[in-house]
Write a structure and sequence with these properties.
Layout lengths: L10 E4 L7 H6 L4 E6 L3 H4 L2 H11 L3 E5 L8 H13 L4 E6 L1 H13 L7 H4 L10 E6 L11 E6 L4 E6 L7 E4 L9 H19 L7 H23 L4 H15 L12 H13 L3 H16 L4 H12 L8 H18 L16 H8 L13 H10 L2
Helix pairs in contact: 4-5, 7-8, 7-9, 7-11, 8-9, 8-12, 10-11, 10-14, 11-13, 11-15, 12-13, 14-15
């Protein structure tokens, strides 16, 4: 087990009707707030009215910035920074999924910064301060509600970059599984793929022994595998929605990575598909992760045998290590496909003409990944496997 430092200060407020408490939670920090959200969904499900009522009950003044899109854009972040500065706003409430929360985090970092917030993502500056933020989660997937990570797309350069900084940890995250009843089957499936990917980026490691963390990872993956088909068949199954929502948070709050060296190569390749082609993040990961696995499994075949046995229930006694490992990869691919997700680039309409370009963009700071280090040839080969 590797040395580690674990820190997560986000208060999780979980359960039915918990969104009604949001005004009181914000009041602990500020009297003025920026409401940051996507489209009209929060109004259709009545969430917007509940939030406004709670804010008014606490005497909190509010401003709004809507229109966040999947793969959140730098332009929207600049807009949010200006609103906060112009109105002396010191708190942001993100209402939505990972894209909205990531956008809010970048705004929070940008408000007190004299320079260009994109400099943080390009490694040209380090954050020193941020205004506070809270979350009402409506799409369990990204785990951004209690992670110290944000990922933003610069639409001008077609670059999608992540940033890790504890200053961005939300003060609180309100998680009511009922708020996820209306999300589409595709969103649900993409969320499941995203959650699985967050776990697998930590699970596939060359660290020799971190058994407790292994078991936590395996249990979280089993939770998604068992509960996703239930909510696809019955979107209003509260108990299964609750399991998925909590798994989303657990998958990316840091606890599943303790004591091990994490990978994150597949995520970077998925980000390229989002940046260049606008592919939904979960869908990109459903395509990339099995391809990455097929490319790297021989570098630690025992880890893939363990994945096949513990996560997919494949008996390692029936077949060679290689056969068992490949059965585990095949099980993951079939799971994604059964949920209605793409598992090849062809299904996304993506050809091979930009493979080298995407690889070069990801290698600006050197090889990516830690399970094995990926160079340009490796990345192009993974894209080819994913065709």
């Amino acid at each position: 087990m590797e040395n580690f430092s674990f820190h997560n200060s986000t208060e999780i407020i979980f359960g039915k009707e918990t969104e009604s408490s949001v005004g009181g939670e914000i009041k602990k920090y500020a009297d003025t707030v920026l409401l940051h959200y996507g489209g009209h969904t929060i109004k259709k499900i009545g969430l917007y009215d509940k939030v406004i009522r709670s804010l008014k009950n606490e005497g909190i003044k509010y401003f709004e910035l809507s229109g966040v899109q999947p793969n959140p854009t730098l332009a929207k972040i600049y807009e949010g920074i200006k609103i906060c500065r112009d109105n002396d706003i010191k708190f942001i409430l993100a209402i939505g999924g990972g894209s909205v929360i990531d956008s809010a985090k970048a705004i929070a970092l940008g408000v007190p910064f004299d320079g260009d917030v994109w400099d943080f993502f390009m490694g040209k500056a380090q954050p020193k301060d941020a205004i506070a933020l809270g979350v009402i989660l409506t799409v369990p997937a990204a785990g951004s509600e209690s992670s110290a990570v944000t990922v933003i797309k610069n639409e001008g350069t077609l670059m999608k970059k992540g940033l890790h900084c504890h200053l961005m940890l939300p003060k609180f995250a309100i998680l009511n599984p009922e708020l996820t009843f209306s999300i589409s089957a595709f969103q649900t499936a993409c969320g499941a793929a995203d959650i699985m990917a967050h776990v697998m980026e930590r699970y596939f490691t060359q660290t020799k022994k971190a058994d407790l963390t292994d078991r936590l990872c395996e249990g979280t993956m089993r939770c998604i595998i068992e509960n996703t088909p239930i909510v696809l068949a019955n979107p209003k199954d509260y108990d299964s929605r609750a399991e998925i929502m909590w798994a989303s948070t657990m998958a990316h709050n840091g606890i599943l990575g303790v004591g091990r060296i994490e990978d994150w190569g597949s995520h970077k390749l998925g980000h390229e598909l989002g940046a260049v082609y606008g592919v939904a993040h979960g869908a990109s990961l459903a395509v990339i992760f099995p391809a990455w696995m097929k490319y790297v499994y021989k570098y630690n075949i025992k880890r893939f045998v363990q994945f096949a046995a513990r996560v997919w229930g494949i008996d390692p006694c029936f077949g060679t290590d290689e056969e068992v490992a490949l059965k585990g990869i095949d099980s993951l691919t079939k799971f994604y496909s059964k949920m209605g997700l793409p598992v090849t680039l062809k299904e996304l309409g993506i050809t091979d003409d930009r493979f080298a370009e995407m690889a070069e963009k990801e290698l600006q700071w050197g090889p990516i990944g830690n399970f094995i280090k990926l160079n340009k040839e490796d990345i192009v080969n993974i894209f080819k496997i994913a065709k």
